[in-house]
Design a protein that fits this description.
Elements: E1 2-6, E2 8-15, H1 21-28, E3 44-51, E4 57-64, H2 72-76, E5 84-90, H3 94-98, H4 100-110, E6 115-121, H5 132-141, E7 145-149, H6 157-181, E8 194-199
Parallel strand pairs: 2-4, 2-5, 5-6, 6-7
Antiparallel strand pairs: 1-8, 3-4
The chain binds guanosine-5'-triphosphate.
Length: 202
Amino acid sequence: MTDIARTCIKISLLGDQAVGKTCICSTFFGLEFMENTLTSIGIEKNETKMKLENGKEIKVKIWDTAGQERFKSISLSTIKNSQGVLVVFDVTSTESFKHVTEWLKKIKDQKENIAIVLMGNKFDLPNRTVTKEEAEEFAKKNKLSYFESSAKLNKNIQEAFAKVVNEAYKLSSNAEGNELNNNAKKKKTEGGCFGSKKKKQK
Ligand code: GTP
């Protein structure tokens, strides 16, 4: 069987407006936390390198999307080319938690084979309205990994990214490897995210 050495993973951040997606990205990239942010109006792309659980180093492209309703279709358009999604809600906003169901549906409508990790952000705030237990139960029901994060305190940010990137790598390497096996002429997909093919003994 032909195995494909994936060299790049794309991750989208989705979720309602003001849940903290941009701050999560900034913290992930080692930037200072911003108390006041401007609402996103498009897609902000950044990239870095990460070491996977298997020791391999991989390029990771992060797409920070806009949560505002009027930008939803642009934000959702990132799913097609992503291998993983971080769905973020704000633990002080029950509405943003309720909307997670919608975000999940929209993701699954577009792509079945995608890694999804749920993040309940802003756990540093005292006025939370979504309990850890209900978020964990929801995640369990939907077979998702769940992280309570704080971009402000830089808690569980690296962990959530590590989880989604590793899951995305495993899922996409298998699925897209099979797809490429079925189409030997197809040499490259998704903007050069694959390295060389190698033979794997079964
Ligand atoms: P859109 O771009 O509109 O979709 O918003 P967003 O999800 O990117 O939210 P953003 O990162 O801009 O953060 C919105 C507000 O929440 C800002 O005032 C941030 O300072 C604040 N915020 C983000 N993360 C945290 C956190 O972990 N803790 C606290 N206390 N505030 C946070």
